[in-house]
Amino acid sequence: MKAEIISIGSEILRGQITDTNANFIAKKLVELGIDLEHISVVSDNPESLLSSLKLAFQRSDLIITTGGLGPTEDDITYQTIARTLNLKLIKYPEAEENLNKILKKIHKTISPSNLKQVYLPEGAKIIINQYGTAPAMILEKDNKIICSFPGVPHEMKNLIEEYLIPYLKEKFPPSMIKKSKTLKITGLGESSVNDLIRDYMNKQTNFTFGIYANPEDIQVQVTTQASTEKEVEKLLQSSVNQLTKMLGNYVFGNDEETIEEVVGNLLRTKKLKVAVAESCTGGMLGEMITRTPGSSEYFQGGVISYDAKVKEDLLKVPTEVLKKYGEVSEQVARLMAEGVRINCHSDIGISITGISGPGGATEKKKVGLVYMALADDEKTITQKHQLFGGRQLIRVRASRRALNMLRIYLMGK
Amino acid sequence: MKAEIISIGSEILRGQITDTNANFIAKKLVELGIDLEHISVVSDNPESLLSSLKLAFQRSDLIITTGGLGPTEDDITYQTIARTLNLKLIKYPEAEENLNKILKKIHKTISPSNLKQVYLPEGAKIIINQYGTAPAMILEKDNKIICSFPGVPHEMKNLIEEYLIPYLKEKFPPSMIKKSKTLKITGLGESSVNDLIRDYMNKQTNFTFGIYANPEDIQVQVTTQASTEKEVEKLLQSSVNQLTKMLGNYVFGNDEETIEEVVGNLLRTKKLKVAVAESCTGGMLGEMITRTPGSSEYFQGGVISYDAKVKEDLLKVPTEVLKKYGEVSEQVARLMAEGVRINCHSDIGISITGISGPGGATEKKKVGLVYMALADDEKTITQKHQLFGGRQLIRVRASRRALNMLRIYLMGK
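The joint structure predicted for all components is written out below.
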């Protein structure tokens, strides 16, 4: 079965809103094992909508529309569906009753423009909308299904959860259960990941794979299906294990896990506390670590040492070292990490100092040059990176590299 | 002229990401006066993409694709465009040169999968991508235009701004010039903004208005058109002036201006330096201030005082005060701001201490309770807020309130 979403609304085409409804529905269809083949955004121009609906009826079996059910002139979804399928619009008394109830609640009376909202294509199974004035519907015709929901996100979401999902589950009991797992990778580029696992991926027939690139991590998604939940889980796990073997330490987590959560769990397990000393990232590393609820268990705080005086006073980096090597140097990164560890009473100190640009570069030190260090009570390790991207991206990448340095360190503990 | 966007990527149809690229392009087309009639999302299945491209060539004059230009097997945009139009794929040496340059910068060598990225349909005007490995292109054929951009948002945005917009402006000089201006407002809710300007908006016939709500600011967009650039600017400015009069100090900026830029400009003009002391925000306020290039001119740094010991040692908040009033209190906020001002050698100290949740609340101090303070060499002012939202939203809101407190303070200086 092929599914298609039609998002109706000129405000999407004019760039006034982003169509987030389609994403919600897409996720639901994946869970049901239904293949979504197209998302079409179309204006509320009658001829445009008519031709999009005709096309959808040719190429898809399940069509879900959102939007265009309101009371104004440009809300033409039901009229146009009726035209597409040569159906009459008929009055649904239960829609009128609900409309009166809703309007009474918000102390309004029914207006002539509201009245059109109670006419739906004949044969439609009406869905009463307790969240707003626009009724939704499911209509079966010629072995195809078209259903229409309001464009207001919370109305659409509630009605789809309460009516469409149970309807589809009953109508198309999934014979196969389809699931995905995602491996999250940091420190490798998209093409390197692809090169490492290409041969494996090409040999598989039970799985499909996708590789996606974010600013600082790469995700490999494995999808498979089987007749039981247990079977799917087993299959997925075997593939995840294989991939993890091939990608090694670059894999930092699965699915929704973030690197700051992974690091947080390692710190908690090993009962270690960390503090940060940040120059070019200006607080971003601390901000990332503290996104995780409960991070006060392992995060002491830190120093944002943007100015050299702060490095001297709060991190005890000697003036001579700053003068001799410059603020962006391995020596300063090292002393920052050691200083913040001691001054913030933590087991581990991490530091970042770099040039995030666009200004501040010299002949020898280019934009994107970042030094980072990790100090514990025995030793200090340092890293040098030449990062790529604009100012903010360099800062994000530097913070995530520092988190990854901490992750690798903790795994070896 | 009819335009169409094709967003290519199975990850959109599987609900893994929301297609935000289309929204960006839609906005740009509005500015150019070009009608966007369709947005189509299609998978990276070759046959699906082929039929979508064929349809687009039938019904649209300008086709903009995003996605599917990467190095992996499922990146098939150029191959499929070539098939659709019966063109050969040919090697573009300038693409190969750029690829080598980019890979060298990040210390990687060209891999076999990268190599396919240098083949584009013959006749394409190549757009070298200095932000990534995938070249973009503009191709004119049979009085139609197809252009392809990477799916990575920042690459797509930069390349469209730098190449596609100037190209379209020259090719299709708009008869009427349409422009928008945005007022950015903080400290007022959407319905309050609406109430303050409703009468004015209803009386206008030359302008259209939109009010949009973000997590921490409200935007009012005014749009108008006229035959000359100068005329449009004049009209827009008159409306912006009227609206600003009605909304007063709540307006912090226009268009793309951010509150941290506005604050940065004020600090620079008044030659003042600021330092931050952050508890619940964990570094976010510092991170926001340092997003602006050149912020080292007015930002000294600060202390992330997550743990009480850091408040005592680095901010000199006395143990007794912490014990008596608790870490989340007006008294502690005050001493944090004063302490960081002195210890970081700045003119102004700002502090935030609060409960961002989900843990840490008590009977009297609920999640979302945030105290902030601003200290200069004469006085310290404090604010108390009860903020709403999840952990991260409370932290964003707290940081932006603190920036707004600083903005109002600086305007009064």
